[in-house]
UniProtKB/TrEMBL annotation:
Alphabetical keyword list: Membrane, Transmembrane, Transmembrane helix
Membrane-traversing stretches: 6-23, 30-47, 53-73, 85-106, 197-218, 224-242, 254-283, 295-313, 370-390, 402-425, 437-456
Organism of derivation: Pseudobutyrivibrio xylanivorans
Protein's name according to its UniProt entry: Glycosyltransferase RgtA/B/C/D-like domain-containing protein
Length: 625
């Protein structure tokens, strides 16, 4: 836990400085350094000094603490010590401390078990920590090196601090960093300086709802590293900040600017959200301040940051000769022909499946079910009503209110509808026909929308008249949302998900340990697996780097074909093993191996969880470990 405490100390350094020197509260400044750390590490990674970047971040944090303490001791603080302490130790600080401790406790010893964690989201953190470079670096072995690295950079900082303290990579700390960053982004909505007691109660009571809402669309949000929920959090907070922030000063402007850049650097689709958040911010800014020579930078700051982040990442991909995944142009002709009823069989089938998904897939709140089309409709209506209310309460002027009512709804509807041409243009045929990851992609937009609605509804509640009713309604909101996700919350807080991950990974980790202890760093290893175990080689690939892992079903099936189709001969498999691999690791014995290739093994003996090496003299695979 020492590494976690040091990590938190680093990301809180600017808030400590700002509380005493700038008279700003903890919760409004914490996101600035958290997102700033990502951008600093990104820039150092761009110039191939990522290994120095995390040290620079830590040194800057130390300087901020030292300078602030020196300033206090010299008695030069422009704000009274008492007021400064209250800027630092706010209700937001207390909530952050409690949530941080909870995240650490509930994630301690968690292990990765989801497929995409090993194809990218954890794998990249392992690569960056080992090489002090992006996944685009030569020899990294990254499967999706073109994916932007924002979250991985934040996790990288914690892992480097942890390795300095303990010498080891700690898997569960990647989950801690992910969840902590999501909380930090939402922390400004806990600001309650200059609020009445009733308003403070409403803010504190209702804020935890934002931690529960992601479970509505991502039931594994607190036990996986998939980036999609984080995109939804960024999107919802970006739109909501424009709609309900009352004091729109430099802190707000920097928050919005950094959020746009981090969105782009989180996932390719982030630029879509960042573009429209930047547009909404621009309209609101110009409608408040006008546009002239004195206002050339701030109105366009998020859009400039978005463009700069995108261009820099494209430059990194170009310089490193990294091909971009899923970058094929949309098949607009095929899309139009299919909608008109003239598409080919493949496009027509995908279109039918897509329409059915919009009408027959449901999200449930308690016993109320809403199909995807209904959810989009409710969002459009809700955004209009809520922003009319903001206009009537003089929170937004007319232009900003119209933009807030229209832009988020258009963003959600257009994105989801555009997934049809996406499927027929960029996905493999079987993935397109099955609408691969459709719920997850829609979940990004749905979470963006529900968070925007929650923050704006909550703002109405905070400003409502009365001393009892707003508090009761806040309690009712929290209780209702909690009850709707009680089973998922209990599963997470009972640490059952941690225990399940450890059980799932037990045999894999044993084999990975054997490989790491006994096989050379440059070894090539063929892993024998059985049905339903395709994820195992990916796991071993992540935890046995830089060794190269390949799986057996690329050379022979798990089961002997019943239709009489041929499989490679014993001699052919022996030739492949001797020419392409240094070791054979048997994770699980499959039927095809025992039926057709037993003679390859010394004395016909095969053990699961074991490593074999080829004995040229005996012409057999013999047990190595």
């Amino acid at each position: 836990m020492v590494a976690v405490v040091l990590f938190i100390a680093v990301i809180c350094s600017f808030s400590f400085f700002a509380a005493f020197k700038l008279n700003r509260t903890f919760e409004e400044t914490l996101p600035l350094l958290a997102m700033g750390i990502i951008l600093i590490l990104f820039l150092t990674g761009m110039i191939n000094i990522l290994g120095a970047g995390w040290i620079i971040v830590c040194l800057v944090a130390a300087v901020l603490y030292g300078y602030t303490i020196y300033w206090i001791i010299r008695g030069k603080s422009e704000v009274s010590i008492k007021d400064s302490i209250f800027n630092l130790v706010t209700p937001g600080f207390v909530v952050f401390a409690i949530i941080s401790a909870m995240i650490a406790y509930y994630n301690q010893d968690r292990l990765a078990i989801h497929t995409d964690e090993f194809s990218h989201w954890l794998d990249t953190v392992v690569i960056m920590t080992r090489m002090d470079a992006f996944g685009t670096a030569e020899g990294s072995g990254a499967i999706f090196p073109s994916y932007p690295p924002a979250m991985s950079l934040f996790q990288y900082l914690l892992e480097k601090i942890n390795m300095t303290v303990t010498g080891d990579f700690s898997e569960w700390k990647a989950y801690f960093a992910y969840q902590l960053l999501a909380v930090i982004v939402m922390l400004p909505f806990l600001k309650m300086k200059d609020r009445s007691l009733v308003q403070k109660l409403v803010i504190v009571i209702s804020w935890p709802v934002c931690l529960i809402l992601p479970l509505q669309f991502f039931k594994d949000v607190y036990s996986s590293l998939y980036i999609d929920p984080f995109l939804g959090v960024l999107g919802g907070c970006g739109f909501a900040a424009v709609s309900i922030t009352k004091k729109k000063d430099w802190v707000y402007n920097v928050y919005m600017t950094m959020l746009a850049a981090v969105l782009v650097l989180s996932k390719d689709v982030g630029i879509y959200l960042a573009m429209f958040i930047g547009l909404y911010y621009f309209v609101d800014y110009i409608s408040r301040e006008g546009f002239g020579k004195k206002q050339l930078v701030w109105p366009l700051a998020p859009i400039i940051a978005m463009a700069a982040a995108k261009l820099l990442w494209k430059l990194e991909l170009k310089v490193s000769n990294t091909g971009q995944k899923f970058s094929q142009p949309f098949n607009l002709k095929g899309t139009i022909e299919t909608i008109q009823g003239n598409g080919n069989e493949f496009c027509t089938t995908v279109y039918t499946n897509f329409r059915n998904a919009l009408t027959y897939r449901y999200v449930y709140y308690e016993r109320l079910g809403f199909n995807y089309a209904a959810i989009m409709t409710l969002f459009v209506i809700g955004f209009i009503c809520l922003h009319v209310s903001l206009y009537k309460r003089k929170q937004l002027n007319k232009s900003a209110a119209v933009s807030g009512a229209v832009i988020p709804g258009v963003v959600i509807v257009f994105y989801i509808l555009s997934m049809f041409p996406l499927y027929i243009s960029r996905f493999a045929e079987d993935e397109a026909l099955n609408l691969a990851s459709f719920d997850r992609y829609c979940g990004i937009m749905f979470l963006t929308g529900i968070l925007l609605m929650f923050w704006t509804l909550r703002d109405m509640l905070i400003d409502a008249d009365g001393k009892v009713i707003p508090v009761v309604l806040a309690l009712g909101m929290l209780t209702s949302v909690y009850h709707s996700q009680k089973d998922n919350i209990v599963y997470y807080t009972s640490k059952q998900s941690v225990e399940d991950s450890q059980k799932y990974r037990y045999n894999v980790d044993l084999l990975a340990s054997k490989i790491n202890e006994n096989c050379e760093d440059n070894a090539r290893i063929l892993v024998v697996i059985n049905d339903g175990q395709d994820i195992i080689p990916a796991m071993l690939n992540t935890f046995s780097k830089p060794r190269v892992i390949d799986q057996s079903n690329g050379y022979f099936p798990n089961n002997t074909p019943e239709d009489g189709s041929s499989i490679i001969s014993v001699d052919d498999l022996q030739a492949i093993i001797t020419s392409e691999f240094d070791y054979v690791a048997v994770y699980d014995i499959n039927e095809c191996l025992t039926t057709n290739y037993m003679e390859l093994f010394e004395e016909g003996n095969i053990l699961s969880g074991s490593i074999y090496t080829y004995n040229k003299d005996a012409g057999k695979l013999e047990l190595y470990r």
